[in-house]
């Protein structure tokens, strides 16, 4: 129990994977932690901090993340 992978693609509120679109699409807070949109919106309607690191957060700090477009760009020349 509790040994499921705490990978980078799992919402820490509901412990299910987020998606690229829809209610549970991936979003982040100012601290950089990622959540499903529907989960963090509900969470922040009741609390004022990140569920992962307790950094102060408000619903307006929620940022959409376009996960499918996240590509590491090598800027070294
Ligand atoms: Zn969730
Ligand atoms: Zn955080």
TrEMBL record:
This is RING-type domain-containing protein. Residues 11-54 form the RING-type domain. The keyword Transit peptide does not apply. CDD domains: mRING-C3HGC3_RFWD3. One of its GO terms (cellular component) is nucleus. Signal peptide: none annotated. The keyword Zinc-finger applies. It comes from Guillardia theta (strain CCMP2712) (Cryptophyte). GO terms for molecular function: ubiquitin-protein transferase activity; zinc ion binding. One of its GO terms (biological process) is protein ubiquitination. Keywords: Metal-binding, Zinc, Zinc-finger.
């Amino acid at each position: 129990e509790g040994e499921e992978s705490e990978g980078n693609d799992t919402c820490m509120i509901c412990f299910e994977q987020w998606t690229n679109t829809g209610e549970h699409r991936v979003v982040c807070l100012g601290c950089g932690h990622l959540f499903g949109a529907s989960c963090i919106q509900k969470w922040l309607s009741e609390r004022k901090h990140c569920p992962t690191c307790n950094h102060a957060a408000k619903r307006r700090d929620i940022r959409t993340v376009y996960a499918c477009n996240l590509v590491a760009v090598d800027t070294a020349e």
